[in-house]
Amino acid sequence: MPKSKRNKLVTLSKTKKRGKEQKESLVKSVRDCLDEYSSLYIFSFENMRNTKFKEFKERLKTSSRFFLGGNKVLQIALGKTDAEEQKEGLHQASELIHGFCGLFFTNLPKSEVLKEFQEFEEVDFARTGSVATETVELKEGPLEQFTHDMEPFLRKQGMPVRLNRGVVELVADYTVCTEGQNVSPEASRILRLLGVQMAAFKLHLRCRWAPDEFELFETEENMQSDNPSDGS
């Protein structure tokens, strides 16, 4: 009887070696792009949606390349200090690699890049842990958008419901989520049933680097980091 592949042991030394090789490959690919493309942008993202991001990358693949990976590895690839930077001024871009972000290498003119990123936005259902952008409240009374067989499920989500002559009825006002607060797992499911989308997948440009050029963009994100009292 052949051995099950699931029982095959993989030594830690092999996994460590593979991880090191992947990091080295990422560093090399990033450094190769410094010669292949005319400019580099550091961008951040919120409410990432992989399918939509893949479509965005596909649209720009003939002129550009994206990198998402470990921030520390990306910093090493560019150079974390003046002495380590691969090209002059790159350490300034490296300093902006933090949080949810990536690299965007391109041969597109700056005006086209700005247009692509500013116009990109995909609205989707909020996931657990995301911040609610509005307060959603349901008033006491019949919920005719739900069928009778959904009543047990709604009750499990914490909604005060009952069946009244085959109609799902809310026996008291109920707040699904509150603006500014994290969306709970139950709220996420209810919002999806209600068809309420409040998660916007957006991309924000932090800076642009090109030979002998460096530009920091005044985005809302950057302004908040400069003024902690306004956010955080």
Structure, described:
The chain has 232 residues and is α+β, with helices and mostly antiparallel strands. Helices cover 35% and strands 24% of the residues. The chain contains eight helices and eleven strands. The longest helix has 25 residues. The N terminus and C terminus are likely disordered.
Short description:
With 232 residues, the chain is an alpha+beta fold. 35% of the residues lie in helices and 24% in strands. The protein contains 8 helices and 11 strands.
Task: Tell me the major beta sheet.
Answer: 6 strands, antiparallel
Helix content: 25-40%
Number of strands: 11
Amount of beta strand: 15-25%
Mean pLDDT across the residues is 88
pLDDT under 50 segments (min length 5)? 3-7, 222-232
Compute the CA-based radius of gyration.
24 Å
Helix and strand succession? Answer: HEHEHHEHEEEHEEEHEEH
Oligomer type = single chain
Please tally the helical runs, counting DSSP H or I stretches of 4 or more residues: 8
Globally, the shape reads elongated
Category by helix and strand content: alpha+beta
From the N-terminal CA to the C-terminal CA, the straight-line distance is: 59 Å
Subunit structure: Associates with the pre-60S ribosomal particle.
Pfam families: Ribosomal_L10, RL10P_insert
Keywords: Cytoplasm, Nucleus, Ribosome biogenesis
Family: Belongs to the universal ribosomal protein uL10 family.
